Amino acid sequence: MDQTGAAFVEAVEPYGPFALFIVGVGIAVVAVLCAFILPTWRKNLEAQQAIERMKAEAQIELEKKREERKAAESERQAQMNKERAEIDGRNAVTMEGLKTSIDAMRATQERSNALLEGSRSGSAKMGETVEDTNRLVTEIHHVIVK
After folding, report:
1. How far, in Å, CA of 107 to CA of 132, rounded?
2. Phi, psi (5° rounding) for residue 16?
């Protein structure tokens, strides 16, 4: 190493002390770069990589939570659909029962109307018979009384 340094100084010596000074400053700059700036730059690069890794992990966690929320929402929706189907089934049974009841009431009302009409017509005939009987009794009465 000493021989390399001595050879270097001899090579630069013809250019004067200013050239030797410039080379020394250059070596000092390289030494400062190697000693201070490169480690700092490496730490900065590692810190950026760590930040990117944390961002990626945070994004993965957000996606995981989003998927969990979607799954929970899907489960709630499925439960609501199941409950709605059960309610619709009960409503259909109830509506069918109501329809059957209404049909039975309508049939009963029609029967009652038919019986009432028959009763009215029977009453009308009976009324005619009573009138005829009254007329005959009156005639008989007039014949006997006279």
Report:
1. 37
2. 105, 175
